[in-house]
Amino acid sequence: MMRLVTGFVATLSLVVITALSADDSKKNGEGKNCFHATIKSISSNKDSLTVKIHDKSGQEQEKTVQLSQDVALRDTSGKTAKLSDLKEGDDVVISEKNGKVTEIKESDEATITKVDPKAGTVTLRTRDDNGKETEKTFKLVEDSEYLDSTGRVATLDVFKNGDQVLVIEGEGRLQSMKKADKSDKSSQNNATAGKQDKSSTTK
What domains can be seen in the chain, in order of their start residue? Predict the structure, then answer.
């Protein structure tokens, strides 16, 4: 048992070192770089998105990505979506290859139901393509990336049962897991509610 625990601690240390030395994005088996982002605005002519991203220290940055005609847009289930389905505040995963955006997908938000450091696994509750709740257990690997809600590189210790997380999954494994930032959502909901109240008062 001690050998198993020691081995996992060593593996987890390697994960952190790898993440700290890596770029802010994750490269999958197809050579694509994938990264978490939050939509800030969509250009009036629908040919670009301005998104908010975080560097490894958690500092917020803005990035404008150009949208080509062949960029793939997908919802959380992976089905084809339209640009009009995306809106300000949406969390997305952006895939780039050779400096070109190839896919924008609404982030899969999942709930952690179990973290097992000894076994090196995490179990997530999410929804399948038909909207049905399902649980899936991922084996954590050396290059899995962990980020807190500000985008800072973190360790598995910051995650606990019940946490809402955004994930990047590829080739049947968990490439990246980021704590969902609920503060932006609350601010947007409050702003929307305020506009509706003001509209009702005006009427």
Answer: 2-23+108-183 (2.40.50.320), 26-106 (2.40.50)
Q: How far apart are CA 153 and CA 155, in angstroms?
A: 7
Distance CA 177, CA 155 (A): 10
For Cα atoms 118, 114, 167, give the angle at the middle one, nearest 5 degrees: 105
SS3 112: strand
* Tokens describing residue 101: 């955006």
Q: What is the pLDDT of residues 77-123, one digit of tens each?
A: 788 999 889 999 999 999 988 878 999 998 878 999 999 888 888 99
Q: What is the pTM of this model?
A: 0.63
User: Concatenated DSSP letters for 134-171?
Assistant: EEEEEE--TT-EEE-TTS-B--GGG--TT-EEEEEEET
AA letter at 166 = L
Whole-number Å distance between alpha carbons of 164 and 41: 24
Measured CA to CA in angstroms, residue 140 lies from 63, 145, 156 at distances of 30, 9, 10
